[in-house]
Write a structure and sequence with these properties.
By secondary structure, this protein is mainly beta. The chain has helices at residues 21-35, 141-147, 278-281, 308-311, 397-400, 404-409; strands at 5-7, 36-38, 62-71, 79-84, 89-94, 99-107, 112-116, 123-127, 131-135, 171-175, 180-185, 200-210, 216-227, 234-245, 248-250, 257-260, 263-264, 271-275, 298-306, 315-323, 326-332, 363-365, 380-385. It has three domains: 5-38; 49-59 and 179-426, no CATH class; 63-168, Immunoglobulin-like, CATH 2.60.40. The longest helix is centred in the N-terminal third of the chain and has 15 residues, at 21-35. The two termini are 22 Å apart.
């Protein structure tokens, strides 16, 4: 469990006579301990609807990191790894023209990363920020690489090939590299909801497979339906964007994907309909909100084939709810644009402050001016985490996670680990 501390200056008392020293020491200890307060202790109680959030705050707990690595001559074709501080692999990429580039998404709580050659074991440690680094590989690196066996003949030796017997695939990446991608929805859009964010709560894990040239070939998605507290008939969709870099995304110029195990949306390119009607497709009709039935979350898995020449080598999902009886009525996460078939009549009504026009082509920056209230509050939130507990029905998310208050009101600068400190009386305990 992560814990962060903030300490304030301690008053130092000098020129005391000897008989006052015990008293002075006691005073200093008292002042010192009261000055060092844990960040996991909330300073105030604020309902979600009353948060004072800057209009510039993007509600993001996920950041994109670009790492450029230059290596010495003679090592082209080898692989370089990007690891987290615990040594778990985030990504693997190729050295081409003496350079390698990582384009990854990480949780904002990840503070350090390791750039490592798995061939020589050499590594450098850096903070998780955009960076350009130089790594001088040992003189025997090329010899070690060329001497290693390559069963499938794809130019990636078996020791560093995730698919040593498949010439069409070489690298497999899990995203997030640890934990899951959590997505929490309030279904009351465009009207203010009850802010428990358990109407639909899911988590997802993605697996992306690339060939020996680093081109994206296929992927797999595993979705857990954590909670379904909504009384509405809702479906769940997923549109795939091309992830360019940073906060820039793009619509693929054409149909880039073929889904397996879920229906492709006939109305929107590169989009899967994961659930036509969530409630009707549940094997056990659980809510997991502390009021209705409970059960272990159901998992729905599907795969897809990807045409990188159309959609590029990096993708990012745009999940959304839709009315099971009206596909054009959509609710997306904070800042995400609607699909091309969305009905715009509810935008900029009641509590919603969305723009009312959009062009579904080219590239765009995120977050955009959609699905946010006039107070810049969301109807959907996302983050990377492990073991997140959803909020009980009728409880405000700030009751369940008090540190969210300071995180949001500081525009994400403080209490980055707010998800690690729930109040157990306000969160659902999985059976």
């Amino acid at each position: 469990m992560l814990r962060y501390y903030s300490c304030y200056p301690v008053i130092v008392i000098t020129n005391l006579s000897f008989r006052f020293i015990p008293w002075a020491v006691s005073l200093l200890v008292l002042v010192g301990f009261s000055a060092c307060k844990k960040d996991d202790q909330p300073t105030k109680s604020t309902a979600f609807a009353d948060l004072r959030v800057a209009q510039s705050f993007d509600w993001s707990s996920i950041r994109n990191i670009i790492v450029n690595v230059t290596v010495n001559e003679g090592n082209n074709g080898q692989v370089i790894d990007l690891l987290d501080a615990n040594g778990a692999r985030i990504d693997r990429t190729l050295i081409v023209a003496n350079k390698a580039r990582f384009n990854v998404r990480l949780s904002t709580v990840d503070q350090d990363m390791i750039i490592k050659s798995p061939v020589t074991g050499q590594q450098i440690v850096r903070p998780t920020v955009n960076t350009t680094e130089f790594l001088t590989l040992n003189s025997n690196a090329a010899a070690l690489w060329s001497a290693a066996s390559d069963s499938d003949g794809d130019s990636i030796p078996d020791a560093w090939d995730d698919f040593p017997n498949n010439p069409n695939l070489a690298f497999s990446t899990r995203m997030p590299h640890v934990g899951e991608h959590y997505l929490l929805f309030d279904d009351n859009w465009p009207t203010k909801g009850d802010h428990d964010f358990n109407d639909v709560a899911i988590s997802a894990v993605y697996k992306f497979d690339r060939n020996a040239d680093g081109r994206l070939i296929q992927g797999r998605v595993d979705i857990s339906l954590l909670a379904f507290s909504s009384e509405k008939a809702l479906g769940l969709g997923m549109e795939l964007f091309t992830a360019v870099a940073g906060s820039t995304f793009a619509y693929p110029f054409g149909n880039a994907v073929a889904f397996n195990g879920v229906r492709a949306d006939s109305m929107v390119q590169n989009t899967a309909i994961i659930y036509e009607n969530i409630r009707q497709e549940q094997r056990i009709r659980y809510t997991n909100d502390g009021v209705g039935a409970s059960a272990m979350p159901e998992i729905k898995s599907f795969s897809f084939n990807w045409m990188a020449n159309i959609g590029g080598d990096y993708v990012w999902p745009n999940f959304f709810l839709f009315d099971a009886s009206d596909r054009t009525s959509e609710v997306h996460l904070f800042g995400y644009p609607p699909t091309i078939v969305a009905n715009f009549s509810k935008f900029a009504t009641t509590d919603d402050a969305s723009i009312r026009n959009w062009r579904w082509n080219g590239s765009f920056a995120m977050p955009n001016a959609f699905y946010r209230s006039f107070r810049n509050l969301p109807w959907g939130m996302e983050f990377f985490h492990q073991g997140f507990k959803t909020v009980l029905d009728g409880s405000d998310i700030t009751e369940a996670y008090p540190l969210l208050v300071n995180w949001a009101e500081s525009s994400g600068q403080n209490n980055l680990s707010w998800r690690f400190f729930p109040k157990n009386q306000f969160v659902f305990q999985n059976p």
